[in-house]
Amino acid sequence: MDRNWMRQRLEAFDELTTLYWNIQRAHHDPSEERKRLFEAEPTVRKILNRLDPRMRDTEILGQTDWDGLTINVDEVRRGIGMLADMDEWTARLAPEGPSLPADGLHPWVWDAALTFWESNHYRAAVHAAATSINAHLQDKLGRRDLSDAKLIQEAFSDKAPEAGKPRLRIPGDQTDPGVQTRQRGALQLGQGAFFALRNPAAHETGDLAEQEALEQLATFSIVARLIDQCQVAT
């Protein structure tokens, strides 16, 4: 909705109403103002109905027995008040959403990101978190020959372990379809995080917005927990 336009139209109608009554009380001819009121009234009713559907049948203009006008200016002013406060309603009456405490992220992620985060270097914080996960994964598997997405691919591969190529396995019965699905999901999520988040954090310029960076850290936190919970198969 174009709230500024709506408010302008209602305020103009209110001012025209005041002008009409002042001319009438002065015993002058208000026919021009009367004409303008009737021209404006359909739009005013549309606006009020949009603000409150219960006002659909509310009469704004009526006629007295002596051919004067009755004007329901109170409803117009109520509409002006609603429009004046709508932005504040949005900010102050929004449902309480859940918050994501950053220090509740996996320590591999938050401990690495904290210094950069506190200095408002959000892209660097994401890159540090990804680097930390890579280092912990290398330590867990005892591998230094691979890193990042390639290491994730080797770690979560459903192939049997080979000499020098241990695997990560989601806890549980490895013949269970649910466990197998989680294994494939961990592989895809891990690779996606490194391709879609780590690589831009390492190579692109310009910083991330704080909210976007927090969401990316949360993604890496999931990857870190999966790695941390997995068993090493040799």
Keywords:
two-stranded antiparallel sheet, single chain, 65% helix, 5% strand, 234 residues
Description:
This protein has 234 residues and is mainly α. Helices cover 65% and strands 5% of the residues. The protein has eight helices and four strands; from the N terminus they run ααββααααβααβ. The chain has helices spanning 3-25, 31-51, 73-92, 107-118, 122-141, 148-155, 177-203, 210-229; strands at residues 61-63, 69-71, 167-169, 231-233. Strands 1-2 form a two-stranded antiparallel sheet. The chain has a two-stranded antiparallel sheet with strand order 3-4. A hairpin with a 5-residue loop joins strand 1 and strand 2 (69-71). Helix 4 (107-118) packs antiparallel against helix 5 (122-141), helix 5 runs parallel beside helix 8 (210-229) and helix 7 crosses helix 8 (210-229). The longest helix has 27 residues, at 177-203. The chain is rod-shaped, with a radius of gyration of 33 Å. The two termini are 62 Å apart. The relative contact order is 0.10.
